[in-house]
Amino acid sequence: MNEMSEELAAILDLPKVELHTHYEGAAPPAFIRGLAKEKKIDISKIFTADGSYAFEGFVPFLRIYEAATTVLQSPEDFKRLGLAVLEEAASNGVVYIESFVSPNFCGGGDVSAWRDYLAAMVEAANEAERDFGIISRGIVTCIRHEGPEQAKTAALCAAETVGDFIVGFGMGGDENQGKQRDFTYSFDMAREAGLRLTTHAGEWRGPEEVREAVQDLGVERIGHGVRAAEDHALIDELAEKGIVLEVCPGSNVVLGVYPDWKSHPIDTLRRAGVPVSVSTDDPPFFHTTMRDEYLNLANTFGWDEGVFRDIAAASAKAAFCDDATRARILKKLEA
Ligand code: ADE
Ligand code: ZN
User: Fold this and answer.
1) What CA–CA distance (Å, rounded) separates 94 from 86?
2) Could you report the per-residue pLDDT of 307-328, keeping only the tens digit for each?
3) Please, how many CA atoms are within 13 Å of residue 288, restricted to the half-sphere of its CB?
4) Atom of ligand 1 nearest to the CA of 172
């Protein structure tokens, strides 16, 4: 091995912290196909001939994603999914991961059904920590294009189950529908229950959407937020307030937010002092892993080991877990 590839290998092997993944979105296509076969559900049209998820662009992605979730029908399905996903993340060096999970896909928003699904996810989390050494936590997520009433149901599920595992509340879905402020009731309910807050913003809409997320919902982290890079005053505001961006560069490139890696603003944001973290979003959909994200970032921006270590430490600081857990994560990062 030459010197560069040794340095790169060391970077890829670093312990990592991931703050932005979707529980269902991390399901490998083979896993979903297997469940579909067991349950005799025909979702063959969501796959390409070579077995990948078939979509081009954001809205088709959301539709395929939702079709894939239709085979996840029981707490046991979520436990199996959780174990598979956490094993894969751990094999990428991820020592701590936060996943978005929607009560919509876990019993349709009914609190009692949600408790059963959650118990299964907690079992998966505990087994994965024991067997693979990965610590995980959940962020209950409402779905923007399902509207504010559905969000209240999700927020109620979150508020009723805040605790060791459920540590946050957030919103994903189609950013081009409605406004952040349509969801203030749900975010207020979640905050009052003691949950930490994040929302997808500035993935599709511009800087104004990021401003509204901070002002109208009072979130302390932003999912994506990359389009903030188009507004210098906003960059300064995010840096000053220490608002953390959950950046998912591979997702942005595959979905077409940016045409290629070198056009991605993560390095510009980081250099301007905005706290950035690095995540995979929905890794099998975007043909990525945390190692792939690190590889592309190192190759595109010349980041060295120090940059990646700083980002992992900043991500641990921004994690929604309690401080005792944070101390355990920081210990893993020193290894
Ligand atoms: N749900 C899963 N992935 C998403 C993304 N990238 N943006 C919005 N909602 C999502
Ligand atoms: Zn996301």
Assistant:
1) 9
2) 999 999 999 999 999 999 999 9
3) 25
4) 9
Task: Give the pairing of strands 135-143 and 221-224.
Answer: unpaired
User: How many Cβ atoms sit within 10 Å of the Cβ of residue 47?
Assistant: 18
- Lining ligand 1 with CB less than 6 A are 22, 25, 65, 172-173, 200, 203, 251, 281-282
Tokens for 32?
């979903």
Mean predicted lDDT score pLDDT of the chain: 97
* Number of domains comprising the chain: 1
d(CA 138, CA 33): 25
Q: What is the CATH number of the domain that holds 268?
A: 3.20.20.140
- Whose structure tokens read 């508020």? 159
Query: Which residues 6+ apart lie within 8 Å of 11 measured at CB?
Result: 294, 295, 298, 303, 304, 305, 308
Catalytic residue among 203, 209, 246, 293: 203
pTM over 0.90: yes
Q: How far apart are CA 308 and CA 12, in angstroms?
A: 10
- Tokens coding 118: 């959650």
Residue 12 token pair: 């890829």
SS3 at position 246: strand
**Residue 98 falls in the annotated catalytic set:** no
pLDDT in tens, 284-299: 999 999 999 999 999 9
pLDDT at 281 over 80: yes
Ligand 2 center to residue 224 CA distance, Å?
Answer: 7
CA distances from 317 to 82, 137, 151, 324, 326 (A): 24, 14, 28, 12, 7
**Rounded CA gap, 67 and 84, in Å?**
20
Q: 290 lies in which domain range?
A: 3-334
Alpha-carbon span 18 to 260, nearest angstrom: 22
Cβ atoms of 229 and 180 within 8 Å: the answer is: no
